What does this fold into?
Amino acid sequence: MSKFFLNSAWNRLLERVWQRKVEKPVDYLYLKWGEKNFGRICIKERNVAGMNTLEISFVSSGRKKGETDIWREQEAERWKKRLKRKLRPYNLESCVVNGDWRLLNVFGMENVGFKARKKELLSQGMFIFKQLCPKREKGMRGKLLIFLESEAWETQEIYDLLWIAKNYYEDIILASENVSMYKEILACLFEECGLVVTTINLRRTGMEIYDSALFLVKKWQLWYSEKICYQRAYVVAEWEEPKVWFRRKVKGDMVTDVPVCFSGLCYECNGRKIPYQFATDIFYQNSAFYDKKGISFVAIYRLECYNNNNYAGC
It folds into this structure.
């Protein structure tokens, strides 16, 4: 047997072994800040309801956690290269990616978490509005406030939300700093189904009492719940602060006289509860995999303790 053949066979064997190593499939990858091992990237493998996940922690030596805004371009490139080397043993071809939005920004990724939450509301709007709509006596009118402070919503998306909301509320108020840009869709809604939507400026929202409120905002502000009177609300914020403002929890008792805020749905896979962002990211980025795994929502989340006065369902 020739030396050339032996070398070639050995090389092919090494290639097959290497391919087996790099094809370790990953379904979900999350980037976060770590608290130990300064100057390192740490990878933690987990299995969530039969799905392979990677939790990647970054700790930049000499800096406080979360200070990615002071990374220079060259430094960010070095971290990218280190991350690429760390991920060599994994197959990320169909992987869903998310993480701390500051880290995503450093690595040039979009705010996919917000887009996932937006798609969740647009896709499951009927279920969400049904949870928000209070029970009332026959003949009483329901009033909904759509508080549109975020500029990341297309006019067609607002049209779709209004189309769903009309099935649950008789009086709908759209609050925005630029109400004129929605005149066309509001005219279409009136022509198509007779829906009359009242438009007001954001600063006037505290002058009335609402059964429900839909907050489409950049970041949640405490004054929203302090100045605006509602019974139930749903929040979609562009930028969420994990473990600080947005703590989601399911509570069984839906009947309460205390104003309460909701944000997001509770998901299960194979009879097991799975993390909220995990489920919505898969729903947004890989809907075929979402359907294949049989992921489904089973309840609505309440926002827990985003203010200190127990005003909104904490």
